[in-house]
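Record pair follows.
FIRST:
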Amino acid sequence: PMLREMARRGTPFTGIIFAGLMLTQDGPQLIEYNVRLGDPEAQALLIRLQSDLLAALAAVAAGRLDRTDIRFSTRSSISVVMAARGYPGKPVTGGVIRNIEAADALPDVQVFQAGTKRNSQGEIVAAGGRVLTVCATGDTLAQARERAYAAVKVIDWPDGIYRHDIGQRALSARG
């Protein structure tokens, strides 16, 4: 409805938009719109992108998206966020994070760093709330989920926390 109204007013939207939704007893409720790529939401999609992201973004800016080749893999993907203990309140920062490279080297896994920095010894440490996103692909959602959680377990970060139920509802619904 928002996009239709903007077009009706002569200000059509061009770009990236995603809606933050919450599932309630009354159905989905809109929390927010964002006119940017959302992470970790976009990360789970972008690891499936087979065409050139820069070309797609340039086409959006030029109004030529309908004439641009954009291809995504049909494989399933999933993202597990690793946050610092205390998030979303006061996250614990400064803790050393090890084995990111080992996790990233697992088949069909990509680890994105968001809230990290290097300390004076050159070690990667937590520097924010949402620190890592561990993404994985697979032929099925169950396989992608298994790969993501296997990578999470490789990462050595005592202050790291993560949800253990990502993708579980979708898998349960499939029977």
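SECOND:
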Amino acid sequence: MQHRRVHDVMTQEVVTVEPGTPFKEIASLFHRNDITAVPVVDDQGRPMGMVSEADLLRKEAAAPDPDGRGSGNWMRPRDRDRAEAETAGGLMTSPAVTARGDWSVVEAARAMDRHRIKRLPVVDEAGRLVGIVSRSDLLQVFLRHDGAIREEIVHDVLGETLWLAPDAVRVVVHEGVVTLSGRLPRKSMIPVTTRLCRSVDGVVAVHSSLDFTEDDLVQGLERPHASGTDRRR
């Protein structure tokens, strides 16, 4: 089973700014390149933080109304400081949360969810920027055709990993939803099979009506009683 990696879906040509890049130049970069955020890098090309549209809008949100009311007093002190910043170094959210190119798309998605961010700068072994990956990039795995998903499940999961006979399990894939039916040698294989199928790139859900020949889970629990030993004591 081969999971798609961050380097397979990331954007390699990245628009960046330096800590001293002025506010208006950043806004202009967003407009010219149709982007919503840029990494802030040091002189070695290592990400220091990110400046997003939300960071720029904070300045507008903190501005007083024409009648003089409101001046960002409702903001936290750190946010007020960022609202008053004039360059990327003061505007950015830091430190930068980064990814590695060899991460799976699952690892990247978990990092985005954990940190509640929309994109990750991608760095090499030395910490230098080599790309950027966004939520929309990670969703590319769900564009896989049903036929490709089914082929990977039948060949890689059922055949190469679980060593099942070709006719043991019937696999149907529709809109990324996998339906499994058939009979497995042991009951304990059912959750394993379901989990492995769920981990295939592009799978939305797995529905299983798998049956089994041997209930090895029940036998394992009864074996101590058959020998006359009560392991609970």
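COMMENT: The mean pLDDT is 88.
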